[in-house]
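Shape is hard to put into words, and the shape of a protein is harder than most. The fold becomes a row of whole numbers, each drawn from a learned catalogue of backbone shapes. The outcome of that step, for a single protein, is printed below.
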Amino acid sequence: MDLTVVAYVIYLFISVGLTVWVARTLSRNGRVFIADVLHGDEKLADAVNHLLVVGFYLVNLGFVALYLKSAEAVADARSLFEALSVKLGVVLLVLGVMHLGNVWVLNKIRRRGIMERQQTPPVAPQGWTAPAGA
């Protein structure tokens, strides 16, 4: 078997595995943030969480597929490892950026929800008071 094909198979196996692992981690831990933002609506939090995970899979697996082709043929074991390290390094960086992007967005949404809850007075206003000395 051609070493380039071996590199492709190893790259796909590791990249898809990493993508699934990161997506599951985001899904499991991001749900808490989403539920907090949605004021405890568990059903809606699960639906939004699932949609985010599907989008994460589509973007990352699409990138993995587009980045599969190698410009150079793999001739020996050394070039196999070099090609894999470059490809997997780029995939890891993309996964990391996507992960940090998801965490940043979830945190922004969560902070907005916390600020909105803090602006709501605990009781309805009961009247109006004129300024002192008027």
